[in-house]
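We modelled the chain as a single entity of 157 amino acids. Its sequence is:
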Amino acid sequence: MRLRRYEHDDFPAFAKLFGDADVMRYVGDGVPLDDAGAQRLFERVFELYATDPEFHVWAIEEAGGYAGHAELKRRTGRSEYELIYFLARDRWGRGLGGEVVDALLAFAHEQRLPFVIATVDDANAASRRILERRGFLADAALSEGFAAPAYRLGLEA
């Protein structure tokens, strides 16, 4: 598994991922994107590469193929960085989510971030377990600002 910058050739797989209702049910507002919405978001990724050094977004690649989407981003108007990832349905249940979280945490350490957060829908038990195994703790105060419960992991040694 590796995280890499998106390439323009990734659009068909990106659109399929963001258009998959099963994948998107725990992402954002839970609504999959149509092709036009996916195209706008995909174009935004390339804009962000050029304009915002604080927004890190990657394609997840496994076995030479597109496997999902990952981000480590600062939320608008907030100071913390949020770890975000989601996988193509055919990549579920094989441990890839944990590998992605580990790679994102390694990058966060390299950036010398004091902590990271993640939000996880209560119904997404698999992602919640991945975070808890890595030491993330539920943060009720932080959760007040989000649609889903927030988890926090301190990174300072």
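As a brief sanity check on the tokenised model: The mean pLDDT is 93. The first strand starts at residue 2 and ends at 4.
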